Structure formats: structure tokens, C-alpha cells
Amino acid sequence: MRTRAAVLWPDRSQWSIEEITLDPPAAGEVLVRMVATGLCHSDHHLLDGGYPGARRPVIGGHEGAGVVEAVGAGVHAIRPGDHVVLSVPLPPCGACVACLDALPYLCERGALIGQGFQISDGTARHHARGEDLSVFVFLGTFAEHTVVNEASCVVVDPALPLEAACTIACAGVTGWGAVLNTAEVRAGDTVVVVGVGGIGANAVQAARFAGARSIVAVDPVPFKRGVAKRLGADIAVASLGEAATVVTDMTAGRMANTVVMAMAVGDGRCTEAALSLVGKRGRVVVVNVHPADENTATINLRNLQSLEKQVVGCLAGSWDGRKGIRFLADLHRAGRYDLDSIVTRTYDSLAALPSGYRDQAEGTIIRGVLRLS
Ligand SMILES: [Zn+2]
Ligand SMILES: [Zn+2]
Fold this sequence. Notes:
about 375 residues
């Protein structure tokens, strides 16, 4: 079939919105009519070199929701007409050591993510100008239709509004998972969230849900500080320096239990400032993507050792994305998850991609969403 997608060609620095050819779903695959896609900063990293291993030409987008139009041979749990949210970071194999250790987001198939073809047989379903197209994160949600592996699909209640629900897949699962799984926030904890974008805004809500005693949000943009307070932050400040003063006061110097680093782009020079915000056995969770060639971070190692502090990475909320999507869809239905405050602007078509990312760079949105059909 013919459909439209945002393609990044080699040696280009902007998305090309163009017609592509899409093959039918092969065995174990699903054709999805996309309803909406979120604009995650990770897609923008394809443009700025943040993912040097990603093959081009590639269809961007990995935060998607839509309606199933057809399924390939052997797909029984998903049917045409089902509403689906597409899981990240990959369709796990279910059989490797990581999968068997209940860490499917670290599945060995991750080694193929830069190649971006179908996980089932390593070939492409998406084509344009006589070339095979990769799909980012095995999804390619910057498209009006896409073909994905069945293991990427989570069937959701048709009553769930897909325009907002697409953001659950990455921002939601990552932000909530960073707090619940990676940080293991407990009732009574003090939590600092640095950066109030899609992930940070979700992390603030998760910290409130987990019973944090105090939540401090850090963002230089006043609008984002306002959103953080609406979502449950007790105090919102503009800098890590201000956060140090506030956290010292509110904990009588014992400092925070957790700092979630969720900036637009990670910066190793902030690591010591983040570590100084946590106290004994405190944990700094690094969620934000750092530049691929950043190899240095400044850390006071004496404090790290003597106070048993921890710096830990977090990929996709340290969660099986399929489980995280179900968890958050249920929470939304129960009225305990504010998705509307996450999606602060919607755009009408693929052509609005550049303006969506411009708004993101200018800090005027938390998460932008493109309507695709
Ligand atoms: Zn993302
Ligand atoms: Zn696996």
C-alpha cells in the first residue's frame, strides 16, 4: 500500500514528508493505522547526531498509538480494529538471558536497534525511492501507517483517548518507571526531578503516587515549573543550586533520597551537583540521553564511597513497556493519572513536525503530539 511518513535521508538535516510503499505484515507482524505520535526528544537526536549508529534512511517516531488494520500469519492475540499503544524500546524475544531475567527492555535484540528493520527476519516493510527504509526503535511512528512486530503492540480499551495515550509509551513508562522501578521511591521519601519535559512531568506524578513526602522540580522555564506544581511538586525552582538550598532546608541537611535527571540533553558537568542533592544511600537516576561522545562526569568519589551514594542508568523506565502501558492505562481510567497536563499541544499533520520540535526547543510545551489520522 501507499502511505505517508517522515523520512530522514543520509546527509539531510530535516525530515522529508513523503509517500512511501508499505508491504503487508509478514508472520508475527501487525499493520497499524497511526492515530497519533508523541514528539520525543530522542527522535530529534536522529537529526543532531545523538544516535550515530542509527542507519539511514529512517522513519522517525517511537511514541505511537493507532488502530490495527491487518495482522500477519500466526498473530492471534491482536485483531483488526483493536486499539493499540506501541511499546518501547523494542519487541523482546522472550528467550535471551535478559528476557529470562525479567529484563525484556534489555533484550539482546537491542543490538539490532540501529539497523531498524523488522525483527522477525531482518528485512524492511517500508520503502521509498527504490530504497529500504529503517524504522526508529522498530516502530517508525512518524507515519500514517506502519508495520510492527506483534510484541510491540499493547491492546488498550477503545475508550482510552489515543491522542494522549501515545505519550504513555515512552514519556509515561519512562518517567513513572524511573521513579517506581529504578529509583524505588518509597513513601516518605524526598524526590528531586531535574527537567520538566515529558519524562520529568511523569516522574513528578509518579513520585506523588509513590507517597513521596516532598517533591522538588527543577526547570529554568517558568511555565514548566507551573505544570510541575500542578502535577504534585511541592516546590519548583530554576536551578540545581536553588534546589540544593531548598532540599537542605526541607530535610534539615539529610538531603534527598532520589534525584531523577530528566533534562532535554544530559550534561556530565551536572553530575556532582545532582549527587550533592542526595544524602546517605541516595540514588541519582540518569534517564536523560547524553551526547554519544560524552565520556566524562565530575563526581566527588569520596562522598560517593563514604555515604554509599549511587548513580544508576535508566532505560525505558527499567520496565517491560507492555506492562508499564497497561499499568498507566488502568491508572488513567481510575482517574489517578493526569495525561491531559502532559500533552500541552497537538499538531494536525506530519508537516507540523518542525514546528513541534521548535516549540519543544523553546520550552513552550511539555509534550507535543501529532495527529496522524
Ligand atoms: Zn522517547
Ligand atoms: Zn530477549
